Amino acid sequence: MGRKSDARNKILEAAKALIEQRGYSALGVAEICTAAGVPKGSFYHFFASKQALALTVIDEHWAAQRQQWSELLGSGREPLRRLADLFEATEEFQRAALRQEGMVVGCMFGNLASELSSQVPEIRDRLQEIFETQIDMIEKVVAEAKAAGQTGPAVDTREAARSIVAQIEGRVLLAKLLNDPAQLGTLWQNSLGLLQVPADARPAA
Amino acid sequence: MGRKSDARNKILEAAKALIEQRGYSALGVAEICTAAGVPKGSFYHFFASKQALALTVIDEHWAAQRQQWSELLGSGREPLRRLADLFEATEEFQRAALRQEGMVVGCMFGNLASELSSQVPEIRDRLQEIFETQIDMIEKVVAEAKAAGQTGPAVDTREAARSIVAQIEGRVLLAKLLNDPAQLGTLWQNSLGLLQVPADARPAA
Fold it and tell me: Which Pfam families match (chains A, B) (predicted)?
């Protein structure tokens, strides 16, 4: 990689870490450049604004997460087991942050949605697309499980998928508040409840 | 009320509205005073710092919300119906914000937990207490429902209450992101799923 793309990557990495730690509004371009170790002049060579940088951070984070979600939710395993795989990966992501950065960072998309939904339409719109895609991906697995008779027969697959995403966000928020990734340990059992899987028909964890 | 407490109340009201709109980090004392229409000198007569003000805003908001939760969850109605009453009030709160302020403001405690858990220990600790109290209050109702045979027999009342609070937070986040209070309309059905209430034993909505 040449020096120019090095500088771009340094800015992106520094911005991602700072956004995870402190959100968007409290950050300034000068601080990001200092953390990245690049002169402020090169910032505007790569990004038109702080907002443009944030959108790139969001897009890169989502590209990586989407890839992981696709692999886990598209594996050949039983549909409900695939949901468990996703929840385990979600918990492991927070455990890794706790080990490496000393804290549960929460969900970048949830954090930014909470902070910016009423303030920055461009970021809100991008986050809406991301959450809708997450719901799509989970709904596909829920529909497979329902077709196989593994959920309650009356489950609305779209609403159930939306509720599973909401449950992830709520549990990740508690994990962040308590700095405790174990708050995510009940996601699978909760999802089986949301999917109206009878208690005596639940697969082993 | 004398002039002094008027000024204090004006500061509190302005701070509450600004925190709901823009969070904590992006606010400055000068901006709060301008919005409140009080001179900056009087701010420090009432509050030692922005953080002290934020803690007072949190405490006053929680005192009001706790009173409402106590009334709804302590009414003489059927336990599961009391949960429905709470969810309806939660949705109505967001509908009122949308009517009055033009936007779903979300949950002040969830927003601040997302923003500040890794940054401001004093605020994080207060929010932890509030969420634990919310979980306590819901667990009490869940335990009543379980004792009356209205939940699945294997439900862990503490974990179920925690998951209901997480579901509220996740759904409120989606409501804020989509500026759509109707995202809260499924909270009761979802909670019945989390409580493992069999589909054919669910009370009418």
Answer: TetR_C_13, TetR_N
**How much is the ipTM here?**
0.94
Work out the pLDDT band at A1, boundaries 50, 70, 90.
very low
CATH class of A51-197: mainly alpha
Does residue A165 sit at the B interface (CB-CB below 8 Å)?
yes
* Contact assignment for B159 to A117 by CB distance below 8 Å: no
Q: Which of A104, A118, A168 to mutate to test the interface with B (most CBs of B within 10 A)?
A: A118
- CA distance to partner chain A, nearest, from residue B194 (Å): 5
From the list A114, A174, A198, the residue facing B111 with the nearest CB is A114
Min Cα distance B114 → chain A (Å) is 6
Q: B171–A163: do the CB atoms touch at under 8 Å?
A: yes
The span from the first CA to the last CA of chain B, in angstroms, equals 44
Q: Is B87 a residue whose pLDDT tops 60?
A: yes
Give mean pLDDT, residues B44-49.
95
Where are the CATH 1.10.10.60 domain residues in chain A? 1-47
Mean pLDDT of the region B7-22: 94
Q: Which of B115, B176, B190 sits opposite A194 (nearest CB)?
A: B190
**Are the beta carbons of A89 and A68 closer than 8 angstroms?**
yes
Domain with CATH 1.10.357.10 in chain A: 51-197
Fold category of B1-47 in CATH:
Arc Repressor Mutant, subunit A (1.10.10)
Indicate if the pLDDT at residue B200 is higher than 90.
no
How far is the alpha carbon of A140 from chain B, nearest alpha carbon, in Å?
A: 19
